[in-house]
Amino acid sequence: MGGTLAPEASADAYRRRMERRKEVQQQRVGERNLEKGLVLVFTGDGKGKTTAALGLVLRTLGHGEQVAVVQFIKGGWHPGEAKALALFGEALHWHALGEGFTWETQDRERDRELVQQAWQRSLTYLADGERKLVVLDEVNVALKLGYLELDQVLEGLALRPELTHVALTGRGAPAGLLERADLVTEMKLLRHPFREQGVKAQAGIEF
Q1: Residue 61: C-alpha distances to residues 2, 51, 91, 168, 188 (Å)
Q2: Residue 98 banded pLDDT, cuts 50, 70, 90
Q3: What is the pTM of this model?
Q4: How far is CA 63 from CA 35, 36, 60, 198, in A?
Q5: Which one of 7, 148, 152, 196 is most buried, counting C-beta atoms within 10 A?
Q6: What is the 3-state secondary structure (H, E, C) of 118-178?
Q7: Are 126 and 159 in contact, with CB atoms under 8 Å apart?
Q8: Residue 41, SS3?
Q9: Do 207 and 80 contact (CB within 8 A), yes or no?
Q10: What Rg, from alpha-carbon coordinates, does the chain have?
Q11: Going by DSSP bridges, is the β-strand pair 131-137/165-169 parallel, antiparallel, or unpaired?
């Protein structure tokens, strides 16, 4: 550990340990030179899953690469990030193919149909070598609700070109998807203003 957590009292001793730490870190970085398309899963009950994926979108677009976002379940509102990222033009394809939360649609068969349509659109992007990143937003929820089968998703992931990344968001990601993923981050809910304070969804925070 560095900073005030380091045990060395003198500046010279601290500097020597940090030099050794730098050598070790450089060696570790040098040994890790594999490049591959990653499967990244953002799940859990906490807020920030879609936000994390959209950070990847912005980063990828900033490097001049093409991105596709397919939103499952969501679709009842127009998020601010979609409006802002529209500035990137054809480099970003954004599809909100749901009709809102299940308690709003109240039609399981319609929801299932829309999810399957969204999945077919997703497959075209997963197989497209021009897309560096594909985001499947709330696809984990579609899996949890039984509107998509895990085998469908795993087979779709296998279609990707070698260097294409895919991010899958939503609570309740199934174990089979977690096993397939290269990176899994679970957002843990500790406090939320909607639940504890009755604060409504606000522009710039939730959408």
Answers
A1: 34, 15, 7, 18, 28
A2: low
A3: 0.85
A4: 16, 17, 5, 40
A5: 148
A6: HHHHHHHHHCCCCEEEEEEECHHHHHHCCCCCHHHHHHHHCCCCCCCEEEEECCCCCHHHH
A7: yes
A8: strand
A9: yes
A10: 20
A11: parallel
